[in-house]
Amino acid sequence: MSDSTNIEAMDPHSSAQDVHRCDLCETAIVHSYCDFCHVNLCKLCIADHISDGYDKHKIVPFRERRSTLIYPKCATHPHKNCDLQCKNCNNIFVCSSCTASETHKGHIFVEVSEVYTTKKNAIADEANKLENLISPTYEEIALDLENQLANLDGGYEKLTTAMSKQGEQWHREIDVIINKMKTEISEIKVKHRDLLQKHLDEIKQTQALIKQTLVAIEELKKSTEVSPTIEYSSKIREFSKLPPKVKITLPTFIPKPLDRGKLYSLVGQITPLSTATEKNVLSLNQPNTSVKELLDEPELVATIHTRYGKLLGVTYLHEDCVWTFGSTKDIKCFNIKGELLHTVSNKSEQRPNAIAVDSDGNLLFIEGTSGTVNKVKNGQTEELIRLRGWSPCNLCVTSNGDLLVTMFSDVFTQYKVVRYSGSTEKHTIQFDDEGKPLYSGNAHIKYITENRNHDICVADSDAGAVVVVNQNGKLIWRYIGHPSVTKKKPLKPVGITTDSQSRVLTADFYNNCIHILDQNGQFLRYIDNCDLEYPLGLCVDNNDNLFVSEHFKGNVKKIKFLR
What we know:
Layout: H1 3-10, E1 32-34, E2 39-41, H2 43-49, E3 59-61, E4 84-86, E5 92-94, H3 96-99, E6 109-111, H4 112-150, H5 152-222, H6 226-231, H7 236-240, H8 260-267, E7 294-305, E8 311-318, E9 321-326, E10 330-335, E11 340-345, E12 354-357, E13 363-367, E14 372-377, E15 380-386, E16 390-397, E17 403-409, E18 415-421, E19 424-429, E20 447-450, E21 456-460, E22 465-469, E23 475-479, E24 493-498, E25 504-508, E26 513-517, E27 523-527, E28 535-540, E29 545-550, E30 555-562
Antiparallel strand pairs: 1-2, 1-3, 4-5, 4-6, 7-30, 8-9, 9-10, 10-11, 12-13, 13-14, 14-15, 16-17, 17-18, 18-19, 20-21, 21-22, 22-23, 24-25, 25-26, 26-27, 28-29, 29-30
């Protein structure tokens, strides 16, 4: 069997109907490939192809095509390829000659091939997520919307039918009430008639007596008999006592004015369209979505020495790289080996209050003195939010890209959480259903994170509690610590984060441990076996490894706590 036949049999791109041919002669079966020019070549055409200079071409077996990396040429040394990147110079490409120059003296370099491989893997992973996760999810969402549209008329018809039934019920009830009122009027009419008739009968009886008296008097006037005349007793005093003149007023019907607004509310209520949709959150940062159990004994994986005098926080970037900040103006990025990769300096010369990373990998930080939230993009710092009357303390990025910012009032008496979309304020969380403050009012930093179930978790150190509300701000639970014979001091939670299973982890600063809670606030276990000293900041990476910043030691510890 010839080489070309072997290639044809082994190459997944070939078939009986589709045999790769040489791009030059267009007849012979392909044998090789130029990785620089991306040209198919047969044996005979190779010499012609490289006739203009062998160094301009890279001939490889056809089945190994596109395996040669094409490095950029060095701008300073054109004859050299750039096979390195300088971490201290914003990852610019450099060649071997550049590394020995005064410009890059003492700098850190990484192999371009390693960066390329990592990026290629990331691109492949992205393609996999787009094809197998994101695209099907969009199809599912579209199908759901189509179903909602199909059911729209039927749903609204049910609403109008319910309204009509309510109207009919109201008509029936009104008819009952009117008929009852008419009955009451009829009964009052009878009483009215009886009263008038009674008085009339009494008057007519008196009138009859008066007539009888007049008849008797008339007979006495004509009579000459002495005895009856003398014995007559005058009736004038009796009849002069006139009866009262009875005037019975008709009852009145006083119709109440129709209050359309009140009547509308009494009939029922139409709720507005609700756009508080359930978030379709893709767990892109969770390659393994299966249930992960807690390790019996958490394991210390690595320790990064940041050389901060006081380390204040840590946040995960990517691929074992973390951003850190301390008591200086500098925010530093380290890899797991402890190598300093980037430094961002706060222009105000003040230390930041907090840091986070957005979904695009941009660094966010709070500048407390100016009351601003800032973003570092492509090496440039831009202001996102500027507060008036409030001072920002801590922040986190939510699953849908919003920002949650904790802040206290300028008079140090109030504390709240505000959700932002970009620079626009969307929602404020400050009070519970009874109007009581959810958080203690002071200037101390309260750390915040969003759980995978969209609950908002705040570590309120002064209150000695982890306070968890849902995304609408309704209090769900508070955690105030777990009884322990070894943890002598009251819980003062500081850093807080969550894992892929919606567990909540918070740093217990004075007891040198981490509390792990389930999503309902039930205590699960401590992490207290990794020689932690004054743990402060917490974050987890894509694989649920925990990073803990130690305040006074200036170390970041990477801990594995899940199976």
